[in-house]
Amino acid sequence: MSSQNLPVPLPQPVERRTVLRHLDPWLEGASRNRGVAVVLAALAAAAVMGVSEVAFWGADQALAQSQARYVAREDGLRLRELLTNAETAQRGFLLTGREDYLAPVQLAEHEVPTVLQRLRGQYESSEWAALVADASRRANEKLSELQLVIKLYRDGNTPAWQGLVESDIGREKMQAVREAVSQLDRHEQSQIALEREAVYRSLTYGRLGVHGLTLLSLFGLAVFLRRNEALHNARREHARELAQERDRLDREVVRRTAELTELARHLQTVREDERAHLARELHDELGALLTAAKLDVARIRRMTKTAPDIDERLKHMSALLDQGIALKRRIIEDLRPSALSNLGLIPALEILTQEFAQRSGLQLQLELTDWPMDDGDRLALYRLVQEALTNVLRHAKAKQVRVSLGEADDWLQLSIRDDGQGFNPEAVGAGHHGLLGMRYRIESLGGTLQLLSAPGRGTLVLARLPRRPDMPKAEAPPETVPGALPPPAEPAA
């Protein structure tokens, strides 16, 4: 083989390595800083949530205290209102004697104890507890004084109830309650104002904290977007470099595949030429030697008919020579079938299948149509049938085989189908070169080879070759030998 057919080493992408060397720090920095960015983002989010929560809890506590003070203030005002209404109702009852005027008194008798209990609970541990206790005592006394006057009026003891009314005891008690309620009201108003300021202060701090963290987050986002854009640009450049390298490698693969295909075709042609040459040498030289030896043996037998022992030996030698001639003929046919060169593809396939049927005992059906084709196509199809039948005999455990040759969609199509045990094509391991050799042989001629099989469903070998432009389309109808082989369902490829 000439030096120009030797494999050429792939050129090294020097420029790509240079670009990647500049790109690697960006990628490494991005990978290294990704964890830091995640931690900073988590800290910023935690800070925003922390500031928001602190502001919320401060405002919530202040609002809760304000609500409690509003309730206490309302209780004080309610106490004063109940006592004032009860006093007014008592005077109306005393003036008119009508019982319906006593409704506010009855309401005060019902609600005043509850209001006083709430007030005592509100100021129980504060400096205002003594004032609340005194106001409670004065309010109970005032309520008792109102009840006593009403009782004396109902009993008809006019001087007694008039004396109580005209005395200043009730007025003093009522005035003490009013003053206590006023003091409590002023205190609660001042505290509510302070707590309102605390709420505003908490909201202000939270607002300032959220604004500051938002600005900080925006700054971090800007930095991140800038670095991210730079990283994306680097990645796009990297992808462009990879695409260029991939395209170059694809072109290199296509070129090398074409070279290997041409080399495989050349080696196949050389192999077939060597086999044909060897077959001719065996036919001419060895055939002549064996024929001459057989003629000599026959001549010697005629000369030694009187010696039975020698004649028997010569007869055995003649039989051995006949076996040698038959062996020579089989070797020559295996190397280069003479029927293919002299008679064509159809007779050669008929002879091949007939000998296979006799040797294997299988039933064969032929459906062969004579289509014009060149020598390379004929030899490839013959070798394909030969290899397929060998595989059937070795592995298929079949009973029937059908060989079909014809035209399909303007392609020359050859199929070999058996009803054997089948197999899983994807499970075929390394070392089975027969199928691979058939595939490359057909594909080197521009055709396709499909192997369809499944366990228990037989095997179909389907080869298609394109029609050569200079070959006319045959008009002869297909020649089919009777006897149908049950077609197994074609498994998925």
Question: Could you please describe the fold and organization of this structure?
Answer:
With 493 residues, the protein is of the alpha+beta class. Helices cover 72% and strands 8% of the residues. The chain is built from ten helices and six strands. It has a six-stranded mixed sheet with strand order 4-5-3-2-1-6. Helix 9 (375-396) runs antiparallel to helix 10 (433-444). The protein is rod-shaped and about 190 Å long.
Query: Residue ranges: pLDDT <50 for 5 or more in a row?
Result: 1-20, 473-493
What order do the SSEs take from the amino end to the carboxyl end, as H and E?
HHHHHHHHEHEEHEEE
Mean pLDDT: 76
Helical stretch count? 10
Helix content: over 70%
Based on CA atoms alone, the radius of gyration comes out at: 58 Å
Largest sheet: 6 strands, mixed
Strand order of the largest sheet: 4-5-3-2-1-6
Name the structural class. alpha+beta
Cα distance, first to last residue? 39 Å
> What percent strand?
5-15%
β-strand number: 6
Summarize the structure.
The chain has 493 residues and is an alpha+beta fold. It has helices at residues 14-96, 103-122, 129-155, 158-166, 169-303, 308-335, 338-342, 345-360, 375-396, 433-444, and strands spanning 363-368, 400-408, 411-418, 448-453, 459-466, 479-480. A six-stranded mixed sheet has the order 4-5-3-2-1-6.
Key terms:
alpha+beta, 493 residues, disordered C terminus, six-stranded mixed β-sheet
Blueprint of the fold:
Blueprint: H1 14-96, H2 103-122, H3 129-155, H4 158-166, H5 169-303, H6 308-335, H7 338-342, H8 345-360, E1 363-368, H9 375-396, E2 400-408, E3 411-418, H10 433-444, E4 448-453, E5 459-466, E6 479-480
